[in-house]
């Protein structure tokens, strides 16, 4: 078994702009084993797929403890670094979030700026950076370099005028970088021009969401992306295929 510190170091080193780490988004031990046996070097656990798998709604419809239960099953099944989408933090302190993740063997996290417990409001830019900073300090205190992927929902929530949305996202994510993030996630599907701006102007590797059916690693690599994940789209694609198989038996 690889130590948790080694896994954290490996996950961080895999983030290479222009040679992105592909993190299949998994939700249970079965999907994690499927991806690990396929040769992927690391995985991310998606909140939406996990919530679906236990019959709970996304956007913190499950508890942090329910998420940790599933993550523990995943890390017991595979010996590769695992990152976890912790949504906006489930109302927990940074110390509790980091402690819980380390307890179940996770070495990375995705933290978004939509506060689901407060009506889905978007954290202010500095407020989100302060939360990222709290997570970094908690990880440092615990002695494990948890890889922090700081996400903004400015694009998917279409906050403010479109004319300066890229500039505002860059400014917001730069604050998160200064606070201790390791990668930056302007979630949404963007044009090549926007991706090129994001990857050239942001100081850390950029996480892109990709459609596993239609996307290609090479295209994201050419745009300078450093990390690719699938959100709920891998689970959705498998559901389409499963429905096709099952339809033959109705």
UniProtKB/TrEMBL annotation:
Keywords, alphabetical: Lyase
Domain of life according to the entry: Bacteria
Keyword Manganese: no
Pfam families: PEP_mutase
Matching SUPFAM superfamilies: Phosphoenolpyruvate/pyruvate domain
One function term, GO molecular function aspect: lyase activity
PANTHER family: CARBOXYPHOSPHONOENOLPYRUVATE PHOSPHONOMUTASE-LIKE PROTEIN (AFU_ORTHOLOGUE AFUA_5G07230), PHOSPHOENOLPYRUVATE CARBOXYLASE
Name of the protein described by the UniProt record: Isocitrate lyase/phosphoenolpyruvate mutase family protein
Native species: Rhodococcus oryzae
């Amino acid at each position: 078994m690889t130590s948790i510190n080694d896994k954290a170091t490996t996950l961080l080193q895999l983030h290479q702009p222009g040679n992105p780490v592909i993190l299949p988004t998994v939700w249970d031990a079965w999907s994690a084993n499927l991806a690990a046996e396929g040769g992927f070097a690391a995985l991310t656990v998606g909140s939406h797929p996990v919530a679906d798998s236990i019959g709970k709604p996304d956007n913190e419809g499950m508890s942090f403890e329910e998420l940790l239960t599933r993550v523990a099953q995943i890390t017991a099944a595979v010996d590769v670094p695992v990152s976890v989408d912790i949504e906006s933090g489930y109302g927990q302190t940074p110390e509790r979030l980091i402690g819980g993740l380390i307890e179940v063997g996770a070495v990375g996290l995705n933290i978004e700026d939509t506060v689901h417990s407060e009506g889905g409001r978007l954290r202010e830019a500095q407020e989100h950076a302060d939360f990222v900073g709290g997570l970094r300090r908690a990880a440092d205190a615990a002695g494990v370099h948890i890889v922090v992927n700081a996400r903004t929902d400015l694009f998917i929530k279409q906050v403010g005028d479109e004319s300066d949305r890229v500039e505002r996202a860059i400014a917001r994510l730069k604050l998160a970088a200064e606070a201790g993030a390791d990668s930056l996630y302007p979630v949404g599907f963007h044009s090549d021009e926007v991706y090129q701006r994001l990857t050239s102007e942001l100081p850390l590797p950029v996480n892109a969401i990709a459609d596993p059916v239609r996307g290609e690693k090479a295209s994201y690599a050419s745009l300078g992306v450093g990390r690719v994940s699938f959100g709920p789209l891998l689970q959705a694609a498998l559901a389409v295929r499963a429905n096709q198989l099952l339809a033959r038996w109705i």
